Amino acid sequence: MIPSLIHAAIVHFPIALLICGSLAILGYIHRWPQVELRIVGWWLILSGWLTLLAAIISGIVAQGGLPPEAPYRRVLNWHTGSGLALAALYGALLYQGWRRAIRKGAAKASGSDSALDFLMAPGRQMAECASARKRRGLLTAQLLLGIGLVILSGWLGGQLVYEFGVGVR
After folding, report:
1. Within 10 Å of residue 11's Cβ, how many Cβ atoms?
2. Where are the alpha helices (DSSP H) in the chain?
3. How do residues 55-79 score in pLDDT, each as one tens digit?
4. Phi/psi at 163 (nearest 5 deg)?
5. Which of 88, 122, 143, 155 could form a disulfide with 22 if both were Cys (CB 3.0 to 4.6 A apart)?
6. Distance of CA 126 to the CA centre of its chain
7. Which pTM value belongs to this model?
8. C-alpha to C-alpha distance for 71 and 42, rounded to whole angstroms
């Protein structure tokens, strides 16, 4: 009973943090390119990912006390799978962002100013724009998929609680 209470208390944090962080990053790349919005978005996603890991661990521990042949097992498996997919998706996003930040820091440390290089080389300018557009499209797709997975996982968790009474008794 205690693990299901812990899971129920934790799950709302990754839902809120991941959705808000994703929306902040989407707002940054499509509408309001304010550096503060990008920073807040990535910190929300990092916090959401860490609390997601806690929710996954507490959910797996709580799942150990459930009967193996329960009528809700299929919904539970989809809920678990969507949580693990969320951890992989947002973990990959964080890793990609971290690698880009490291590369940017290394370029600045070596004395290369990528903004100045971008303006000085018109031939590279088109390639840089296409590459940036492609990265922005990929990031948008990943964030929208993440929001969709958060909603799906929350909906499946709601089904487990409100339709099957899992963790309520």
Report:
1. 21
2. 2-10, 12-30, 35-63, 73-109, 114-120, 122-162
3. 999 999 999 888 888 999 999 999 9
4. -95, -40
5. 143
6. 31
7. 0.85
8. 39
